[in-house]
Write a structure and sequence with these properties.
The complex is a heterodimer of chains A (421) and B (427). With 421 residues, chain A is of the alpha+beta class. Helix content of chain A is 44%, strand content 23%. Classes of the chains: A alpha+beta (421), B alpha+beta (427).
Chain lengths: 421, 427
């Protein structure tokens, strides 16, 4: 279906994923650094500025027209978190020239443009000040508008309580309070650090061959290999369960619960992953089937995990009168896993679903780049992903769920006054 | 079975009609592991008043969506679970004019396909299961009530439309869904889930012949009533809007504004609607998109940010344009949109050069969307039910002229039929 060729281009690890099933080619660059509060806000502003104006296209509209001319090429940036790391990625997706009825060197031009994108911040001067001020305003507004999304705002509030003194409470998209103080000079310095110190990787997916390396060489160069160790946050045992409540004039309460698990290696990470799917991560999970379908306690209920760091979060939308009942029922389902009150068939079913989901990810260009990037970062393990999944059994699920402890409960609900109205 | 090739975009489709009237399309995606299937009835939230073989029926709001939820439940349990058992992800959704059931998988394909067909074709409702569903859907309705964007959207529709059911929440209201009985559900299922009112679309890497035989055999084995004569009754909708301005208050941080331009439907034919839809998409992008000088003007004035959006909605029964933005200066925003709409009319703003750029961009977007089996299945269904072919879109795009773009913009963006709705924090 596809073939992966790993190599280095200008000392940068590169994975070329050859497949002709897509109509587009995607070139992606990943920049990885340690997740730190001082860094994330600047990098969010920087990465957005980078994909909007370049030295060759100093006006946003001109850059967009250029991309449109190349048959609607998409230039985007994104931020995310992996383990203790913050990742900034730049993607260029463009149409395979097989579908273009004219002479146009799309790959060559898109790689040249990516070079322009990565190089431009080193030319930032006073003439970029207005642009920078505008981008700060847009960024601040994006962060502010998240507060009107109750589910998102209450999840953030839960993280604030759970990770009070830990870096994890900062989301990869930055901190609203830090935006104002950032200067253009700091943006330029952050860019210089990113280009010099970050661990970079290049990923390509589409109907390409080795000759694309010639174009990739134009994007970015390094004198030697830079490696940033990739590791998770250390495990912290839970002392007492932390609780916090807020009220707003809302119809439906948001119940958020955070758990910590002592996850030691890749095999345990896999067991934790399977356990989450059984608990609340899928439509056949205990939370979905029992809390939503059987007890009608919630319309929305699901759990998600950060497997590398060993955190699990449960999010539910419940009737304000049912918060306590729902919380107890949610914890009751975790007991089911701990006591092993489930059959092997359920474990196998969830594993099969995970395998299917992984195969489906491979049908998306960005899914393939994500898988290959994870493979580049992962420590060596004697078993493949499929073999580690296969190895997970009942006992492993019981063991990992016993090592998973409730840390924080955060509830956003309706005040009593609103209840009376 | 008929094979249709589209060499320009390197796609092929197999079409077949079963004896009971069901239309089946198999869309080949060589090299894909995933197989994605949608089974769709031309029945949505707007179909609440209809006549079957001459007899008229009025059913409670939200019933199409309610029925969608209930189809997953059978006498021996939840079908959702069975899909998972066979390694498939299943889902469903209801819109104004259709209800789709879908699954994707990379294994046990035939088992999942027959599960989907049986689930959709064989209803099972009891008074008890209906009553339990009311609780679940009430929570869903409440969840949307806390969503400021959703609230503002329905407020805008309510200020635009007097009678059309488009103004009613697809899920209905707490009171309307409590009126739903199992008799209503059986009636709607019998009427609208008849094979002649449905389409089955399969996207993936298939062995087509045996797949069509399998479907044919399944459909041939069904005991299907005679095709009902369905007449959908839509209320008369005046050309005028209900109210030009409305203000809501909510416990939110930000003020939002939504503008709606109602366009009087002349119930034109399908291809004319497609031309209008595409022309309006081009026109709005030219005037308000990120390549336009007006966009930067609004941005420089601090009137818009990334929350700014606009869209043209073209359905068989209605069409309108919506603008949305988060801004404190709602009045200035509205004035500016109105001013820009007037400024571009008859000023030579719409040029061939702009249209050429737009067309290149849209062709690229279209081709990259064809990487996704979900997109193909959903859009193929939508276009098919509307009377077009998704894979012929590039030809239609090619034929759009700058005159089409200008003419439709002037026609649709008439400020006499504009509503302004504001949602702001309390106090």
């Amino acid at each position: 279906m596809y073939k992966v060729k790993n190599s280095e281009v200008n000392h940068i690890p590169t994975a070329i994923i050859e497949t002709d099933k897509f109509k587009t080619i995607t070139v992606q660059l990943q920049f990885r650094s340690r997740m730190e509060r001082e860094r994330v806000t600047k990098r969010n502003i920087l990465s957005k500025m980078m994909v909007k104006r370049t030295v060759s296209f100093p006006k946003e509209a001109d850059l967009l027209k250029h991309l449109a001319h190349y048959y609607g090429a998409h230039l985007t940036s994104n931020v995310s978190r992996k383990g203790q790391d913050h990742i900034v990625s730049f993607s260029m997706e463009f149409v395979n020239d097989r579908f273009i009825r004219e002479e146009l060197d799309v790959i060559g031009e898109m790689c040249r443009l990516l070079h322009d994108v990565l190089d431009t911040p080193s030319h930032y001067d006073d003439s970029y000040q207005d642009f920078f001020t505008k981008e700060k305003r847009l960024y601040r507004n994006r962060l502010r508008s998240m507060k009107d999304n109750r589910a998102q705002a209450s999840f953030q509030a839960m993280l604030d309580v759970m990770f009070d003194q830990e870096e994890y409470k900062y989301l990869p998209h930055g901190v609203l309070e830090d935006v104002e103080a950032v200067t253009l000079d700091e943006i330029k310095e952050e860019h210089a650090r990113m280009m010099a110190d970050d661990d970079i990787a290049i990923l390509v997916v589409g109907a390409v061959d080795d000759s694309i390396k010639y174009d990739l060489q134009k994007i970015v160069a390094r004198n030697g290999k830079t490696e940033v160790a990739h590791r998770p946050y250390p495990y912290r045992p839970v002392d007492d369960v932390k609780r916090s409540n807020d009220t707003q004039q809302i119809e439906q309460a948001k119940l958020n619960m955070g758990f910590r698990a002592d996850v030691r290696d890749l095999q345990e990470q896999m067991a934790f992953n399977v356990m989450n799917q059984m608990y609340g991560g899928s439509a056949s999970s205990l939370l979905f089937m029992n809390i939503r379908e059987k007890l009608s306690l919630a319309y929305q209920i699901h759990s998600q995990v950060d497997v590398r760091n060993g955190y699990m979060f449960v999010m539910g939308g419940v009737d304000p009168g049912n918060v306590e009942t729902a919380e107890n029922a949610i914890l009751g389902e975790l007991e089911v896993l701990r006591k092993g009150e489930f059959d092997t068939e359920f474990v196998e079913e969830v594993k099969r679903m995970m395998k299917v989901n992984r195969q489906e990810v491979m049908d998306k260009p960005k899914g393939l780049t994500t898988l290959e990037y994870n493979r580049l970062l992962q420590e060596a393990h004697p078993l493949s992903w499929e073999e580690r999944l296969e190895a997970v059994d009942r006992e492993m699920i019981m063991e990992i769920s016993r090592k998973t402890a409730l840390d924080t409960v955060y509830v956003l609900t309706r005040s009593d006054e609103d209840e009376k109205n | 079975m008929k094979r249709i090739d589209y060499p320009e975009i390197d796609e092929s489709v197999y079409r077949h009609q079963c004896d009971n009237g069901l239309d089946v399309f198999v869309i080949q995606k060589p090299g894909y592991s995933k197989k994605f299937v949608t089974y769709t009835t031309k029945y949505g939230s707007m179909d609440d008043h209809f006549r079957i073989d001459g007899e008229a029926f009025n059913v409670p709001d939200g019933i199409a969506h309610f029925l969608e939820h209930k189809m997953f439940e059978k006498e021996d349990g939840d079908v959702f679970n069975l899909f998972s058992k066979y390694g498939a992800n299943a889902n469903a959704f209801t819109s104004y004019d259709r209800t789709s059931y879908l699954f994707s998988t990379t294994e046990s394909f035939e088992k999942n396909l027959s599960l989907l067909m049986n689930m959709v074709e064989q209803p099972y409702f009891t008074e008890e299961t209906v009553a339990r569903e009311v609780g679940i859907i009430n929570e869903e309705i409440k969840m949307y009530q806390d969503n400021p964007g959703y609230k503002l959207y329905f407020e805008t529709l309510n200020q635009m439309y007097h009678n059309l059911p488009v103004k009613t929440d697809i899920a209905g209201t707490e009171s309307s869904i409590s009126e739903i009985t199992s008799d209503h559900l059986f009636l709607c299922h019998r009427t609208f889930y008849h094979p002649s009112n449905m389409v089955l679309i399969l996207v993936g890497d298939f062995d087509v012949e045996p797949l069509m035989q399998y479907i044919d055999q399944h459909q041939g084995g069904r005991d299907v009533d005679a095709r009902p004569e369905i007449e959908r009754i839509l209320p008369e909708e005046p050309k005028d809007i209900v109210n030009p301005r409305s203000v809501l208050e909510m416990d939110v941080e930000e003020t939002r504004v939504m503008l709606g331009f109602k366009h009087h439907q002349d119930r034109t034919d399908a291809s004319a609607r497609l031309v209008r839809d595409l022309s309006m998409m081009f026109a709005l992008d030219m005037v308000f998109g990120e390549q336009s000088e007006y966009y930067y003007e609004l941005m420089e004035k601090g009137l818009i940010d990334d929350s700014f959006s606009f869209s043209h909605i073209e359905e068989a029964a209605f069409s309108h344009v919506l603008f949305a933005a988060n801004t404190e200066e709602t009045e200035t925003f509205t004035e500016e949109i109105r001013r820009i709409c007037e400024a571009v009319k008859d000023s030579g703003f719409f040029t061939q050069e702009k249209l050429t750029v737009q067309k290149r961009e849209i062709i690229g977007d279209y081709l990259s969307s064809l990487n996704s089996p979900e997109y193909i299945a959903n859009q193929y269904t939508k276009y098919y039910l509307d009377g077009y072919d998704l894979y012929r879109l590039p030809e239609v795009i090619d034929e759009i002229t700058i005159n089409d773009v200008e003419k439709h913009f002037i026609d649709v963006m008439d400020s006499r039929y504009m509503v302004e709705c504001i949602l702001k924090p309390h106090g």
